[in-house]
Amino acid sequence: MSAITDKRKHYAVCKVADLPPGQRIIADLDGRSVGVFNVDGEYHALHNRCPHAAGTLCMGPVTGTTLPTEHGIRKFIYGSEGHILRCAWHGWEFEIETGKCLIDSKVRAKTFKVSVENDQVVVHI
Amino acid sequence: MIDCDVHNDWSSSNVLLPYIDTTFRDYLLRGELPGARGSFPHAHRPWLHPEDFRRHDIKPTNDDEHYSFMRENLLDRYKPDVAILTGEEALEVSTLANPHYASALASAYNNWVIDMWLPRDDRFWASIIIAPQDPQGAAAEIRRLGSHPRVVQVLASHGSYRPYGDKFYDPIWQACSEVGLPFAVHLGGQGGINYQPIGGGPTTYYWETHALLLQPSMTHVASVISNGIFERYPNMMFVVIECGVTWLPSILWRLDANWKALRKETPWVKRLPSEYAREHIRMSTQPLEEAANKQHLWDVLAAMDGENMLMFASDYPHWDFDAPDDMQLPREWLPKIMDGNARQVYKKLPRQLVPNGTKAGGMS
Question: pLDDT for B253-278, tens place per residue?
């Protein structure tokens, strides 16, 4: 999408080199706090405001979690390492790529498009 | 707005060294601790939060930051007029077998909060923590500090050696009555010498257990009413902090029904248990139950006269923090729950000049 047809505002938040895989930055974009995450080389941006209770979602740990098991079987399968964001307040878990909450996919953290332009990580709001 | 449950934590229990009795200073300095140097002496509960019970965005690294983070994330953000400090680990003195050491640690905490926390901010008011397994020592502590102008309540863990109406604790109630302070219990003390806080045996997981930790509070409510605490001390208030709320009406219905038939067992109980509760028991809101249908929650709260019995608490900085601007309560109840009720209980607080309880917002 070109900058001409994209009506969203573009915010350069950092240089590519400043956001290596596994890292995040939290930026104030005209009063809106946004977390930008590098997950395995791909950038994702989430509103730093949890849809549960308006907590500081993006300040929580980036982690993996236990994957669902079937039929009440009590075992632990750990996965999604680096793809899960736990809200800093109450610990609700979200998929960084989609903003979907793991306990209820209808609950979604707001996501923003991210691009790389001129060696800058750019958030589209 | 008044926040009735604000945790003033420390970076290390070494902060108590200047404040503890010299005999027990050696215990704290060189004695066995449940963790590394600087951890607090207590018999820890058997359930451990898998992600830490503190909010992840609040990780102070020194004692100044414990205050500055609180100022930024609670005091200046939500602007309570009053923050009632409830300590953190010090509540766990109730788990220790040695009542002398437990009381010494409680006294050290109380000295520390008065010396280091109260002067920092004019919104701070303190609870003094007691070691309830040492009723005589606790009573002495209550008399030592009860008249301090910024001390508003006596606090012990809800995990306990015996139900708090038991005559074992008579010295504590007597002392509270003398100094005119409420006796409060706060979630905690779920280990060591205290009876298992979960009926039926220890549950397995943290979240499962946390939902059930209100159980001892039911015991305490029944115990203080049936043992006639409020007949003996007509000025007494009993405050239940962080133990949930909606269980109260059903327990009171059951107590009322049983008392009508078996009044003869406790002739000193002269009125319906629910009447004593209305007058003498208050509950902090957090963690307020989250009902799928808000009206169901409100109906239960109305059945317990929630408008007059509840007092707002945030539980800052814990993982189940309730934000004061997002309370799921009827708007018309907010002036009392967010402010007025606490001023009735904590009589040292200044009278409210301009009603501002509604400024806290809330959903209706």
Answer: 999 999 999 999 999 999 999 999 99
**Phi, psi of B170, deg, nearest 5:** -50, -40
A99, part of any domain: yes
The whole-angstrom distance between residue A1's C-alpha and the CA centroid of its chain comes to 21
Spacing of C-alpha B343 from chain mean position: 16
Instruction: Return the SS3 of A25.
Output: strand
The CB density around residue B61, as the number of other CB atoms within 10 Å, is 9
Enclosing domain of residue A67: 10-124
* pLDDT single digits (tens) B13-65: 999 999 999 999 999 999 999 999 999 999 988 999 999 999 999 999 999 99
Exposed, middle or buried, A124 (CB in 10 Å: 0-12/13-18/19+)? middle
How does pLDDT run across A27-51, given as a tens digit for each residue? 999 999 999 999 999 999 999 999 9
pLDDT of A4 over the 80 cut: no
What are the chain B neighbours of A53 within 8 Å (beta carbons)?
A: 323, 326
| Radius of gyration from C-alpha coordinates of chain B | 19
Which amino acid, B45?
Answer: R
What is the model's pLDDT at position A85? Answer: 98
SS3 content of chain A, % helix, strand, coil (to 5): 5, 50, 45
- Please give the pLDDT value at position A71: 80
Report the topology of domain B2-360: TIM Barrel (3.20.20)
Q: In chain B, where are the structural domains located?
A: 2-360
Residue B56 touches chain A, beta carbons under 8 Å: yes
Write the residue in B51, B58, B326 that is nearest to A91 by C-beta.
Answer: B51
**Which residues, in sequence order, are CB contacts of A44 under 8 Å at separation 6+?**
A36, A37, A96, A97, A111, A114
Find out whether B215 and B248 touch, Cβ atoms under 8 Å. no
Shortest distance, CA B201 to any CA of chain A (angstroms): 20
Residue A118 within any structural domain of the chain: yes
* pLDDT greater than 70 at residue A6: no
B328: closest chain A residue by CA: A53
pLDDT above 50: residue B359: no
Q: What is the ipTM of this complex?
A: 0.81
Which CATH number belongs to the domain containing residue A27 in this structure?
Answer: 2.102.10.10
pTM: 0.91
Concatenated DSSP letters of B34-97: SSSTT-------S---TT-SB-TT---SSHHHHHHHHIIIIIHHH--SEEEE--SGGGGGGG-S
pLDDT at A16 over 90: yes
Which residue type is seen at B153? Q
